[in-house]
Amino acid sequence: MEIQGSDQIGSFKVDHGGLSRKGRLPEAVHELEKQMILEALRRTGGNQRIASEILGITERMLGYRLKHYGLKF
Length: 73
Fold this sequence. Notes:
Layout: H1 25-43, H2 48-55, H3 59-69
Helix pairs in contact: 1-2, 2-3
């Protein structure tokens, strides 16, 4: 099975940040989510509406995630 993903701007390149294979899945998922959010916001110049569309989540959910992770852009 092959999984592919893209958006209107292009596909995301994910930096694994030196995660070891011994890492826990929840922590890895959270780190990936944070990276994707920050990349979408960077690509859109901080426009949360467009970033949420790229990520496939609602603008409200993006706002929740930003607050949850303590991210400011």
